[in-house]
Amino acid sequence: MTGRVNISNLCFGYTGREKDLVFSKISFDLEQGEVFCLLGPNGSGKSTLLKCMARLLNPLEGSVCLDGENLNTLGAGKIARKIGFVPQSLVCVFPFTVEDIVIMGRASRIGMISSPSKTDRRKAFESMERIGISHLAKRPCNRLSGGEWQLVLIARALTQSPGVLLLDEPTSHLDLGNQIKILEVVDSLAKEGITIIMASHFPDHAFLNADKVGILKDRTMIALGDPNKVLSEDVLEITYGITIKIVTIDEGINRKICVPVLNQKKTKQQVKNGSIDGLV
Ligand SMILES: Nc1ncnc2c1ncn2[C@@H]1O[C@H](COP(=O)(O)OP(=O)(O)OP(=O)(O)O)[C@@H](O)[C@H]1O
Protein backbone atom coordinates (compact mmCIF):
# COMPACT_ATOMS: atom_id res chain seq x y z
CA MET A 1 0.00 0.00 0.00
CA THR A 2 1.38 3.41 -0.91
CA GLY A 3 -1.40 5.93 -0.13
CA ARG A 4 -1.45 7.51 -3.60
CA VAL A 5 -4.75 9.33 -4.24
CA ASN A 6 -6.20 10.37 -7.61
CA ILE A 7 -9.48 12.25 -7.69
CA SER A 8 -10.85 12.74 -11.18
CA ASN A 9 -13.85 14.84 -12.25
CA LEU A 10 -15.77 14.09 -9.06
CA CYS A 11 -19.34 15.33 -9.05
CA PHE A 12 -21.97 15.00 -6.31
CA GLY A 13 -25.42 16.29 -5.39
CA TYR A 14 -27.78 14.98 -2.73
CA THR A 15 -30.81 14.99 -5.05
CA GLY A 16 -29.08 14.02 -8.28
CA ARG A 17 -30.56 17.12 -9.98
CA GLU A 18 -28.09 19.32 -11.87
CA LYS A 19 -29.26 22.47 -10.06
CA ASP A 20 -28.62 20.87 -6.65
CA LEU A 21 -25.03 19.78 -7.29
CA VAL A 22 -22.79 20.38 -4.27
CA PHE A 23 -19.69 20.24 -6.48
CA SER A 24 -18.64 19.09 -9.93
CA LYS A 25 -15.45 18.36 -11.86
CA ILE A 26 -13.23 18.13 -8.77
CA SER A 27 -9.81 16.73 -9.66
CA PHE A 28 -6.55 16.54 -7.73
CA ASP A 29 -3.73 14.08 -7.06
CA LEU A 30 -1.77 13.34 -3.90
CA GLU A 31 1.42 11.39 -3.47
CA GLN A 32 2.04 9.10 -0.52
CA GLY A 33 2.61 11.05 2.70
CA GLU A 34 1.30 14.37 1.43
CA VAL A 35 -0.96 16.52 3.61
CA PHE A 36 -3.87 18.18 1.77
CA CYS A 37 -5.76 20.95 3.57
CA LEU A 38 -9.32 21.43 2.29
CA LEU A 39 -10.67 24.92 2.94
CA GLY A 40 -13.94 26.60 2.01
CA PRO A 41 -16.81 28.51 3.59
CA ASN A 42 -19.62 26.83 5.55
CA GLY A 43 -21.78 24.65 3.34
CA SER A 44 -19.31 24.64 0.43
CA GLY A 45 -19.14 20.83 0.43
CA LYS A 46 -15.97 19.90 2.34
CA SER A 47 -17.63 17.15 4.43
CA THR A 48 -19.52 15.92 1.38
CA LEU A 49 -16.28 15.63 -0.60
CA LEU A 50 -14.60 13.69 2.23
CA LYS A 51 -17.63 11.35 2.45
CA CYS A 52 -17.42 10.73 -1.32
CA MET A 53 -13.73 9.94 -0.89
CA ALA A 54 -14.54 7.47 1.91
CA ARG A 55 -17.33 5.97 -0.27
CA LEU A 56 -19.92 6.81 2.40
CA LEU A 57 -21.59 8.70 -0.46
CA ASN A 58 -21.58 7.62 -4.10
CA PRO A 59 -20.33 10.28 -6.50
CA LEU A 60 -22.69 10.98 -9.43
CA GLU A 61 -19.70 11.11 -11.77
CA GLY A 62 -15.94 10.80 -11.63
CA SER A 63 -13.65 8.50 -9.70
CA VAL A 64 -11.62 8.18 -6.52
CA CYS A 65 -8.58 5.95 -6.98
CA LEU A 66 -6.28 4.73 -4.21
CA ASP A 67 -2.98 3.27 -5.29
CA GLY A 68 -4.43 3.07 -8.81
CA GLU A 69 -7.55 1.13 -7.73
CA ASN A 70 -10.97 2.71 -8.31
CA LEU A 71 -12.94 2.58 -5.04
CA ASN A 72 -16.00 1.54 -7.09
CA THR A 73 -14.33 -1.81 -7.60
CA LEU A 74 -13.49 -2.40 -3.92
CA GLY A 75 -15.67 -3.90 -1.20
CA ALA A 76 -16.41 -2.09 2.08
CA GLY A 77 -13.85 -4.17 4.06
CA LYS A 78 -11.00 -3.38 1.68
CA ILE A 79 -11.92 0.33 1.62
CA ALA A 80 -11.96 0.34 5.45
CA ARG A 81 -8.47 -1.17 5.54
CA LYS A 82 -7.20 1.53 3.19
CA ILE A 83 -9.03 4.67 4.40
CA GLY A 84 -9.56 6.00 7.91
CA PHE A 85 -12.30 8.60 8.28
CA VAL A 86 -12.80 10.91 11.25
CA PRO A 87 -16.20 12.56 10.86
CA GLN A 88 -17.09 16.01 12.11
CA SER A 89 -19.59 14.60 14.58
CA LEU A 90 -20.81 11.16 15.49
CA VAL A 91 -23.33 10.30 18.17
CA CYS A 92 -22.88 7.10 20.13
CA VAL A 93 -25.89 6.29 22.29
CA PHE A 94 -24.65 2.95 23.62
CA PRO A 95 -22.14 3.43 26.49
CA PHE A 96 -19.21 1.58 24.89
CA THR A 97 -15.95 2.31 26.68
CA VAL A 98 -13.36 4.45 24.93
CA GLU A 99 -11.17 1.34 24.62
CA ASP A 100 -14.00 -0.53 22.85
CA ILE A 101 -14.58 2.35 20.44
CA VAL A 102 -10.88 2.59 19.60
CA ILE A 103 -10.62 -1.20 19.06
CA MET A 104 -13.56 -0.90 16.64
CA GLY A 105 -11.05 0.73 14.30
CA ARG A 106 -9.74 -2.83 13.78
CA ALA A 107 -13.19 -4.14 12.75
CA SER A 108 -12.23 -4.59 9.10
CA ARG A 109 -9.31 -6.82 10.19
CA ILE A 110 -11.20 -8.91 12.76
CA GLY A 111 -13.31 -11.86 11.53
CA MET A 112 -17.12 -11.75 11.93
CA ILE A 113 -17.11 -14.21 14.86
CA SER A 114 -13.63 -13.50 16.24
CA SER A 115 -12.58 -11.39 19.22
CA PRO A 116 -9.90 -8.71 18.96
CA SER A 117 -6.43 -10.27 19.02
CA LYS A 118 -3.47 -9.18 21.15
CA THR A 119 -2.24 -7.18 18.14
CA ASP A 120 -5.62 -5.42 17.84
CA ARG A 121 -5.52 -4.49 21.54
CA ARG A 122 -1.90 -3.35 21.32
CA LYS A 123 -2.67 -1.17 18.27
CA ALA A 124 -5.63 0.37 20.11
CA PHE A 125 -3.48 1.04 23.18
CA GLU A 126 -0.70 2.59 21.07
CA SER A 127 -3.21 4.90 19.34
CA MET A 128 -4.67 6.02 22.66
CA GLU A 129 -1.14 6.69 23.96
CA ARG A 130 -0.20 8.62 20.86
CA ILE A 131 -3.29 10.84 21.09
CA GLY A 132 -2.90 11.15 24.86
CA ILE A 133 -6.21 9.60 25.92
CA SER A 134 -5.16 6.33 27.61
CA HIS A 135 -6.46 7.72 30.91
CA LEU A 136 -9.96 7.70 29.32
CA ALA A 137 -9.77 4.01 28.25
CA LYS A 138 -12.41 2.72 30.67
CA ARG A 139 -14.70 5.78 30.43
CA PRO A 140 -18.14 5.26 28.77
CA CYS A 141 -18.13 7.19 25.50
CA ASN A 142 -21.42 8.93 26.27
CA ARG A 143 -19.72 10.67 29.21
CA LEU A 144 -17.04 12.50 27.28
CA SER A 145 -16.64 16.15 26.41
CA GLY A 146 -16.84 17.16 22.74
CA GLY A 147 -13.04 17.50 22.56
CA GLU A 148 -12.38 14.15 24.29
CA TRP A 149 -14.79 12.45 21.88
CA GLN A 150 -12.99 14.03 18.92
CA LEU A 151 -9.66 12.65 20.21
CA VAL A 152 -11.26 9.19 20.62
CA LEU A 153 -12.43 9.23 16.99
CA ILE A 154 -8.94 10.18 15.82
CA ALA A 155 -7.43 7.35 17.91
CA ARG A 156 -9.99 4.93 16.41
CA ALA A 157 -8.97 5.96 12.87
CA LEU A 158 -5.27 5.48 13.72
CA THR A 159 -5.99 1.98 15.05
CA GLN A 160 -7.21 1.12 11.54
CA SER A 161 -3.59 1.59 10.26
CA PRO A 162 -4.90 3.24 7.09
CA GLY A 163 -2.84 4.35 4.10
CA VAL A 164 -5.06 7.42 3.74
CA LEU A 165 -6.62 9.37 6.58
CA LEU A 166 -9.57 11.73 6.04
CA LEU A 167 -10.07 14.22 8.87
CA ASP A 168 -13.16 16.43 8.91
CA GLU A 169 -12.27 19.50 10.97
CA PRO A 170 -10.21 17.39 13.42
CA THR A 171 -9.45 20.30 15.74
CA SER A 172 -12.88 21.97 15.86
CA HIS A 173 -13.64 20.99 19.50
CA LEU A 174 -10.08 21.02 20.82
CA ASP A 175 -8.28 23.41 23.15
CA LEU A 176 -5.16 25.10 21.74
CA GLY A 177 -2.78 22.50 23.21
CA ASN A 178 -4.73 19.57 21.78
CA GLN A 179 -5.14 21.36 18.41
CA ILE A 180 -1.38 21.57 18.08
CA LYS A 181 -0.93 18.02 19.37
CA ILE A 182 -3.26 16.75 16.60
CA LEU A 183 -1.48 18.83 13.95
CA GLU A 184 1.82 17.36 15.19
CA VAL A 185 0.32 13.85 14.96
CA VAL A 186 -0.80 14.68 11.39
CA ASP A 187 2.76 15.78 10.64
CA SER A 188 4.34 12.62 12.03
CA LEU A 189 1.78 10.33 10.34
CA ALA A 190 2.57 12.01 7.01
CA LYS A 191 6.29 11.43 7.65
CA GLU A 192 5.45 7.74 8.21
CA GLY A 193 3.90 7.73 4.71
CA ILE A 194 0.19 8.13 5.51
CA THR A 195 -1.57 10.50 3.12
CA ILE A 196 -3.76 12.99 4.98
CA ILE A 197 -6.74 14.98 3.72
CA MET A 198 -7.95 17.41 6.33
CA ALA A 199 -10.93 19.78 6.09
CA SER A 200 -10.41 22.92 8.12
CA HIS A 201 -11.83 26.37 8.77
CA PHE A 202 -8.36 27.73 9.48
CA PRO A 203 -6.14 28.75 6.53
CA ASP A 204 -3.34 28.85 9.13
CA HIS A 205 -3.51 25.05 9.16
CA ALA A 206 -2.57 25.04 5.47
CA PHE A 207 0.51 27.16 6.20
CA LEU A 208 1.36 25.10 9.28
CA ASN A 209 1.68 21.64 7.78
CA ALA A 210 0.02 21.17 4.37
CA ASP A 211 1.87 20.28 1.18
CA LYS A 212 -1.19 21.22 -0.84
CA VAL A 213 -4.32 23.28 -0.26
CA GLY A 214 -7.65 23.26 -2.08
CA ILE A 215 -10.41 25.80 -1.67
CA LEU A 216 -13.93 24.57 -2.35
CA LYS A 217 -16.44 27.28 -3.18
CA ASP A 218 -19.29 27.77 -5.64
CA ARG A 219 -19.33 24.04 -6.50
CA THR A 220 -15.73 24.01 -7.66
CA MET A 221 -12.12 24.06 -6.44
CA ILE A 222 -11.38 27.76 -6.90
CA ALA A 223 -7.73 27.39 -5.85
CA LEU A 224 -5.43 24.39 -5.69
CA GLY A 225 -1.72 23.98 -5.06
CA ASP A 226 1.16 24.91 -2.75
CA PRO A 227 -0.27 26.99 0.16
CA ASN A 228 2.59 29.47 -0.11
CA LYS A 229 1.79 30.13 -3.77
CA VAL A 230 -2.01 29.80 -3.70
CA LEU A 231 -3.10 31.43 -0.45
CA SER A 232 -2.94 35.18 -1.00
CA GLU A 233 -4.88 37.89 0.80
CA ASP A 234 -7.09 38.32 -2.30
CA VAL A 235 -7.85 34.60 -2.52
CA LEU A 236 -8.75 34.48 1.19
CA GLU A 237 -10.98 37.53 0.78
CA ILE A 238 -12.83 35.90 -2.11
CA THR A 239 -13.15 32.71 -0.07
CA TYR A 240 -14.43 34.16 3.19
CA GLY A 241 -15.74 37.63 2.19
CA ILE A 242 -13.61 39.46 4.75
CA THR A 243 -10.23 41.15 4.76
CA ILE A 244 -7.46 38.84 5.95
CA LYS A 245 -3.85 39.96 6.24
CA ILE A 246 -1.11 37.37 5.80
CA VAL A 247 1.81 38.12 8.11
CA THR A 248 5.16 36.31 8.17
CA ILE A 249 6.49 35.58 11.63
CA ASP A 250 10.28 35.33 11.73
CA GLU A 251 12.09 34.90 15.07
CA GLY A 252 12.96 31.26 14.44
CA ILE A 253 9.37 30.37 13.52
CA ASN A 254 9.44 31.52 9.88
CA ARG A 255 5.80 30.88 9.08
CA LYS A 256 2.86 32.76 7.58
CA ILE A 257 -0.20 33.39 9.71
CA CYS A 258 -3.61 34.79 8.77
CA VAL A 259 -4.97 37.79 10.63
CA PRO A 260 -8.60 38.79 10.00
CA VAL A 261 -9.12 42.56 9.96
CA LEU A 262 -12.37 44.07 11.25
CA ASN A 263 -14.51 46.51 9.26
CA GLN A 264 -12.39 46.50 6.12
CA LYS A 265 -14.63 44.67 3.70
CA LYS A 266 -13.78 45.52 0.08
CA THR A 267 -16.64 45.90 -2.39
CA LYS A 268 -17.16 42.99 -4.79
CA GLN A 269 -16.16 45.36 -7.60
CA GLN A 270 -12.82 46.09 -5.91
CA VAL A 271 -12.18 42.39 -5.56
CA LYS A 272 -13.17 41.68 -9.18
CA ASN A 273 -10.88 44.39 -10.58
CA GLY A 274 -7.55 42.97 -11.62
CA SER A 275 -6.66 39.32 -11.99
CA ILE A 276 -6.05 37.35 -8.83
CA ASP A 277 -3.01 35.12 -8.54
CA GLY A 278 -3.73 31.71 -7.06
CA LEU A 279 -7.24 31.26 -8.45
CA VAL A 280 -7.73 28.30 -10.77
N1 LIG B 1 -27.66 14.77 4.06
C1 LIG B 1 -27.82 15.89 3.32
N2 LIG B 1 -28.90 16.01 2.51
C2 LIG B 1 -29.06 17.10 1.73
N3 LIG B 1 -28.20 18.15 1.70
C3 LIG B 1 -27.12 18.07 2.50
C4 LIG B 1 -26.88 16.95 3.34
N4 LIG B 1 -25.71 17.15 4.00
C5 LIG B 1 -25.26 18.36 3.60
N5 LIG B 1 -26.10 18.91 2.70
C6 LIG B 1 -25.92 20.18 1.99
O1 LIG B 1 -24.77 20.05 1.15
C7 LIG B 1 -24.02 21.26 1.15
C8 LIG B 1 -22.58 20.97 1.57
O2 LIG B 1 -22.61 20.55 2.94
P1 LIG B 1 -21.27 20.10 3.67
O3 LIG B 1 -21.65 19.66 5.05
O4 LIG B 1 -20.55 19.15 2.82
O5 LIG B 1 -20.48 21.49 3.70
P2 LIG B 1 -19.18 21.88 4.55
O6 LIG B 1 -18.31 22.67 3.64
O7 LIG B 1 -18.59 20.67 5.17
O8 LIG B 1 -19.85 22.82 5.64
P3 LIG B 1 -19.31 23.25 7.10
O9 LIG B 1 -18.04 24.01 6.89
O10 LIG B 1 -20.41 24.12 7.58
O11 LIG B 1 -19.12 22.01 7.92
C9 LIG B 1 -24.74 22.23 2.08
O12 LIG B 1 -25.55 23.06 1.28
C10 LIG B 1 -25.60 21.33 2.93
O13 LIG B 1 -26.77 21.99 3.32
UniProtKB/TrEMBL annotation:
Organism of derivation: Desulfobacula toluolica (strain DSM 7467 / Tol2)
Keywords assigned: ATP-binding, Hydrolase, Nucleotide-binding, Transport
Keyword Hydrolase in record: yes
Protein origin, superkingdom: Bacteria
PROSITE patterns found in the cross-reference section: ABC_TRANSPORTER_1, ABC_TRANSPORTER_2
Translocase found in the keyword field: no
EC number(s) given by UniProt: 3.6.3.34
UniProt enzyme class: hydrolase
GO terms for MF: ATP binding; ATP hydrolysis activity
Protein name: Predicted ABC transporter ATP-binding protein
Stretches assigned to the ABC transporter domain: 5-243
